[in-house]
Write a structure and sequence with these properties.
heterodimer, B: 80 residues, mainly alpha, 70% helix
Chain lengths: 219, 80
Amino acid sequence: MGDPPILASEPDLAIVERLRAGDETAFMMLVEQHQAAMLRIARMYCSSRAVAEEAVQEAWLGIVKGLDRFEGRSSLRTWMYRIVANIAKTRARTEGRSVPFSSLTGEEEGNAGVDAAWFQGAEGRFPGGWRAFPDAWTEVPEDRLIGDETLGRIGRAIDALPPMQAEVIRLRDVLGWTSEEVRTALDLSEINQRVLLHRARSRVRRELHDYLTGGTETT
Amino acid sequence: MSERPLTCHELVELVTDYLEDALSPKDRRRVEQHLALCDGCTTYLEQMRETIRLTGMVREEQIPEDQKQALLEAFRGWIR
């Protein structure tokens, strides 16, 4: 791909230096930040949680031992996630297991975030126009919007997404990664990354809307 | 030359491309022209922005302490 390389940040390079020097605090910081996501990525490809945990352990070893090969042509975290994904895929192959891409992205699933029934059909006065405008959330108090209950709903809505959609929205919106980082880490095309993000956000919005306005949009 | 206006259904499916700034100037204009006239889609777009904001407040899951300890032990072996 002819895209300009993402360059590692100064903090990335500083962490790499500290790891090379055997700095345990730096290592534990990386573990805190990335272990959960690395496990989820491995889990996409591996048959069980135990195998995924082994794959992640192997990935950490690969990361620590491979630091000299980290050239800073990507951010440290995308480099790390690619290592996990590659190890997990290799493990899956050894186990004779192949996970179709479409099952990760949810291409065949009907859990759309946008329902065609919200819009008028060809017979309507405005084909493709709203049957009824969505109720705004402006009346919902901020306390409720940012309360544990609402955020818990969002978390569960994300958990219920097809794995690759869930990972894209987690990295982009929960963790605040850039789209370039996400597609490099997850080995997605620019368009694919955006399509998955769109499906994920649309679905989460829909769940939120049902919750905040009392379920005016039917499944 | 006038372009066919977007329907609401089409707009709702373009919301992410719009927010990601991935539309051609022409399509971006079509989205903005539609939004200027449509309260339903304006509300929808606002809700997508809220969804992104609130998703940003969700906490990443925590990992168990023993898992961290095991990794730390392993790290000590690797760097030797």
